[in-house]
Amino acid sequence: MSLDFVTNQEIIMAARRNLNQDVWDYLSGGSESETTMRRNRLGFDSIAFRPRVLVDVSKIDTSTTVLGHKLRIPVMLAPIGSLQAITPGGGVTVSRAAEEFGTINFVSSVTQPSFEEIAASTKSPKMFQLYVRGDLKWIEETLQRVKEAGYAALCLTVDTAYYSRRERRWLPPSKRVETDRYYQAALTWKMIAEIKKIAGLPLILKGIATAEDANVAVKHGVDVIYVSNHGGRQLDHSRGTIEALPEIVEAAGGKAEILLDGSILRGTDVLKALALGAKAVAIGKLQGWGLGAGGQAGLVRVLELLEEEIINSMGLLGVSRIDQLGPNYVCKAQPVTNPHEMSAFVNIPGLRLV
Q1: How much of the chain, in percent, has pLDDT values that exceed 70?
Q2: CA 125, CA 202: separation in Å to the nearest integer?
Q3: pLDDT value at position 2?
Q4: Domain assignment of residue 164, given as a range
Q5: Percent of the chain with pLDDT over 90
Q6: CATH classification of the domain holding 220
Q7: CA quadruple 164, 166, 169, 170: dihedral positive or negative?
């Protein structure tokens, strides 16, 4: 059963009360000047809707599919490392929330408990996200375990050759104990081909930010292109993900499904991404805030509130199904707020919960 919050703003404020400063900074911050993180938000704020009227929207279907798996709403749960620092159950709590609501979670290879325990915690499909921390033999052994655990797809994160400078300072547990980052830095397209062959699972590349790399990805038979800049937590001064999305969709040419994350905080953000070609989006910060506010129930409530916002906005936009969305429903516009991690929630006291 979910908690009785009526807005996600309330959930964020509850998370701020519950989480210590270190964990709050880990969830809420970005790298260096946090310009990329702000551009993620600015990108969504720079898009306006073009609503149509006198359309029958008495029944609205918010469902979609990713790799053939049905989602109640086009919102997935992004991989987050060190979930155990946010909620005691770690990845198991997230999996149970995903199953309860009706979506899919990505399981980070640097969270707890083990990915086998997380896989066994629910019967619903899950995607495994891998950071490469060893040679080809290590990859083979890890992926054999992943397949035996029953994961539905492999997600390879490709924008973390180096760990960024995050000047809110706190290092998560996964960063403090990890070794062998050399292998992540040495990752190449040639290795992607080897990993795809070894995995024998649908392959998702997370961290694609240009048309050039999207084009190479489809040539390598990648099944899903995941547009991401790590929530503004890796390379500073990058474009917002929603700004990069149209050229990536064009480059993919329908040969791969497209996912996107980066400042998805509102139902309207979800619809803007779908209108520009994403099949679904994933939430990171909002997921963590939900967990911080109330564990499994807090996260389920986050998803319920996003669903309410999506239904309401679809009805006002004049669409009754997700597949009706397209570029004709959006246009460029001047933003009216100064972008930062809380700027989507104008009723939060003081606006920024530092």
Answers
A1: 94
A2: 13
A3: 56
A4: 8-332
A5: 90
A6: 3.20.20.70
A7: negative
Q: What is the DSSP letter of 52?
A: -
Whether 1 has a pLDDT exceeding 60, the answer reads: no
pLDDT given for residue 286 in this prediction: 97
CA-closest candidate to residue 276, choices 300, 256, 250, 295: 250
Find the largest Cα–Cα distance for the chain. 60
| Contact of 207 with 158, CB cutoff 8 Å | yes
Q: What is the three-class DSSP state of 223?
A: coil
pLDDT at residue 176 in the model: 47
Average of per-residue pLDDT across 171-197: 80
What confidence tier does 270 reach under pLDDT thresholds 50, 70, 90? Answer: very high
Rounded to whole angstroms, the Cα distance separating 12 from 31 reads 21
Render 287-339 in DSSP notation, one character per residue.
HHHHHHHHHHHHHHHHHHHHHHHHHHHHHHHT-SBGGG--GGGEEE----S--
Strand partners, 66: 69
Structure tokens at 232: 């503004």
How many whole angstroms separate alpha carbon 116 and alpha carbon 98?
A: 17
- DSSP code at position 201: S
Q: Confidence band (pLDDT; 50, 70, 90) for 349?
A: low
Length of the chain measured in residues: 354
Q: For the purposes of burial, counting CB atoms within 10 Å of the CB of 25, is it exposed (0-12), middle (13-18) or buried (19 or more)?
A: middle
The answer to whether residue 344 is domain-embedded is no
The pairing of beta strand 64-66 with beta strand 69-71: antiparallel
Establish how many alpha carbons lie within 13 A of residue 202's alpha carbon, considering only the half-sphere containing its beta carbon.
20
| Distance (Å, whole) CA 174 – CA 194 | 26
Residue 172 confidence (pLDDT) above 70: no
Residue 21 structure tokens: 């400063």
**Residue 347 maps to a domain:** no
**Total domains in the fold of the chain:** 1
Please tell me what DSSP assigns to residue 123: S
Q: Which positions are catalytic?
A: 230
Once rounded to an integer, what is the mean pLDDT over residues 138-150? 97
Burial class (CB in 10 A: 0-12, 13-18, 19+), 6: exposed
In a domain, 61, yes or no: yes
The answer to the question of residue 349 being in a domain is no
